[in-house]
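Hi P.,

Sorry for the delay on this. The queue was packed all week, but I finally got your sequence through. Input first:
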Amino acid sequence: MKSVIYVGIDVHLKSYSLCCFEPTFTSKCKAFGHMRVNPNVKSIEKYLATITERFTGKGDSVRFVCGYE
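Then the structure:
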């Protein structure tokens, strides 16, 4: 099953704050994967790879939808 994960990125000069959200059909949706990273593409890629591992370990594939302030 393919999971869609929404990623919010709050951009600052010295860091980026990242957070994931997986929509579900229940009212108990929660954010997860809160992390502050260095402000560069490699740090974001590493973060997304970590989240991907979390889902592919359950046999799911992952599609990310990212947005920033």
